[in-house]
Each structure stands twice: as structure tokens, then as C-alpha cells.
């Protein structure tokens, strides 16, 4: 049991580190992209067909790559950013690159749920586009955004497990090195169970927070 704890605890910490940092960067970068995808649509508050199409193509292009292929194809970029292509810190780069377009679409879908009548009422009262974005679009869609962040976290956990295939660290790396290559069933079982527990906790927490916000 002590050997199991010695192996799993560091891998668990690495997974939490990768998932939290990746999601943070995805939210910081993906949110403005998602806002622009909505606000630059035809007949929206910042209508700009060229910008909307360009962003949409870029996001679609980013989402079209299977993660394992993306991770390998941007190794030079990863080395440029963190100085290495192996390890937990290196895995964060492809994880972030893969998650940003995914989260941007999540934000876009969340903002599109806002009733257009509320936006029109804000415009009638003289609100600027920035005010509408900050005081109408984002607050009104916050329950959906929280659920979107929840989905993103779960998605990143899946990506981080795949990162173990190329030495990315974390629970995925542990499962491959010990559970698969060394045929250690105990490590494999506990790793899978731990990942399931993490996902369940995140999903429950996200649903709970979203409901609490929605009641307000």
C-alpha cells in the first residue's frame, strides 16, 4: 500500500497541476475569443463578418486535430515555450492549445442562449457594446458558462491522461508506465478509479454551482 501511495500521490498532484493551469489559460484566452465569435455575428452588437469568419475558421482548425497528433506536431513550439517536450510543464502547452478552441466554442454557445430582447433593451438604454458584454451577456449566461467550465475541466482530464503516452506525467503516465508496460493491474485499477472520482467531483460541483447561480 505504501508503494501505491508513493506512486499515485505525485501523479495525482501532477494531474491537478496540468488540469488547473491548462483550464486557467483556456478561460483567459478562450473567453475573449468566444465573446468575439458571438458579438461579431451578423446583426449582433459588433457585427464584423470578416473577423467572425476568420475566428471561426481558426477555432475549427484548432479543434480538428486529434490531441495525440497535435501534441506531437507542436513539439518544436513546446520546446520554445518551456525548453523541453517531456514532463508535466511541457504537457501544459499542447493541452492549452487544444483546449482554447474547445472552450471558445463553449463560451459562444453559452452567450448565444441569452435572450436577444435583453440585449435590445440594453441598447435602447444607451449601453455600449462593452457594457452589454460585461453587464448583460456574461452575467446572464453565467450558469451556462459554469457548466461549460465543468465540461472543459473533464475534457482536459481526458487530454492529460493521453499526455502520459508521450511522458507528460500525471495519472495517465503512471497508468501507462506501470499498469500497461509492467502489467501492474493494481496501479491501473486505482488510477482509473481516481480519475473517475475526480471527474465525478468536478461534475457534481459544477452542476451545484450552476444551479445556485441560476436561482439568483
The CATH class: Mainly Alpha
Task: Identify the CATH architecture.
Answer: Orthogonal Bundle
**Oligomeric state, counting identical vs distinct chains:** single chain
The pLDDT mean sits at 86
Question: What proportion of the residues is helical, as a percent range?
Answer: over 70%
Beta strand count: 0
Strand content: under 5%
Transmembrane segments: 16-38, 50-75, 81-104, 145-167, 187-209
Subcellular location: Cell membrane
Main location: membrane
Organism: Alkaliphilus flagellatus
How would you characterize this protein structure?
The mean pLDDT is 86. The chain is mostly helical and 216 residues long. The termini are far apart. The longest helix is centred in the first third of the chain and has 38 residues. It has a single domain, classed as MetI-like fold (Orthogonal Bundle), CATH 1.10.3720.10. It is elongated, with a radius of gyration of 20 Å. Helix 9 packs antiparallel against helix 10.
Which features would summarize this protein structure in a list?
216 residues, single chain, mainly alpha, 82% helix, MetI-like fold
Question: What is shown here, in short?
Answer:
This protein is mainly alpha-helical and 216 residues long. It has helices at residues 2-39, 49-63, 67-73, 75-82, 88-112, 116-124, 129-140, 142-163, 170-180, 185-215. It has one domain (2-215): MetI-like fold (Orthogonal Bundle).
